[in-house]
Write a structure and sequence with these properties.
226 residues, 2 domains, Nucleotidyltransferase, domain 5, disordered C terminus, alpha/beta, 27% strand
Length: 226
């Protein structure tokens, strides 16, 4: 199995490559520089592994929600590479990556994701650890206002994301029992478990096809009109 995975939905541009039992990862904190960084990362990983693009079995992408510009950059690259080399694509929730990072860093088996979506909105997701150590969504990813954000039942949830810092007054009484890790940013190593799992479950799109999940549809519609 040879999989390339990409995340451009946050300030960190991450790429990861799985070649059979070996993995290769690149992470660069480069806000608003993903266009310059991404292709160089991909080429460096392939060179390091001694692999050519056409040998890949799939290309995975974090499809959102997240940075609108970052998501578009990642999607454009994945669409072009997968279509040119006839490689299936795989979509991964960006919020699932935050949850997977929480498991890796803090051994969290339940994570409440709350990411500042700007304009008084929160990207919200609930994730629980599966038997094969993959964080799976317990509910659909949503866009909520801070006022409508609610804690789930139970005492084992870890809060993940910067919404608690962005809206301190509105979120003051909504702290999970395990606390909040506001500074978590997913890395390339968080991409691979999710990409491998979805590939194994045959969640594959046709080459050149990838659907982004912005959640904030009014932003998409406004951009399309410009």
């Amino acid at each position: 199995m040879k999989l390339l995975a990409i995340n451009t939905s946050t300030a960190v541009c991450s790429t990861a490559l799985q070649v059979d039992e070996r993995s290769y990862v690149r992470d660069e904190l480069q806000p608003q520089q993903h266009t310059q960084v991404l292709l160089a990362q991909i080429n460096a990983l392939l060179e390091q592994a001694g692999l050519i693009l056409s040998a890949l079995d799939g290309i995975a992408l974090a499809i959102g929600p997240g940075s609108f510009t970052g998501l578009r950059i990642g999607a454009s690259v994945v669409q072009a590479l997968s279509f040119a080399h006839n490689i299936p694509t795989i979509g991964i929730s960006s919020l699932a990556l935050f949850a997977q990072a929480a498991f890796r860093l803090y051994s969290a088996d339940k994570a409440i994701i709350a990411i500042d979506a700007r304009m008084e909105g929160i990207y919200h997701g609930l994730y629980e650890l599966s038997d094969n150590k993959i964080m799976l969504n317990a509910d659909d990813d949503r866009l909520l206002s801070p006022q409508h954000f609610q804690l789930p039942q139970g005492q084992d949830w870890l809060g993940v994301g910067d919404a608690w810092m962005a809206y301190p007054e509105l979120m003051a009484e909504k702290y999970p029992a395990r606390g909040v890790e506001a500074g978590i940013l997913p890395e390339g190593q968080d991409l691979l478990p999710l990409a491998i799992a979805r590939y194994g479950q045959h969640y594959l799109n046709q080459p050149g096809e990838i659907s982004l999940n912005y959640l904030r549809q009014e932003v998409v519609k406004k951009s399309q009109k410009q």
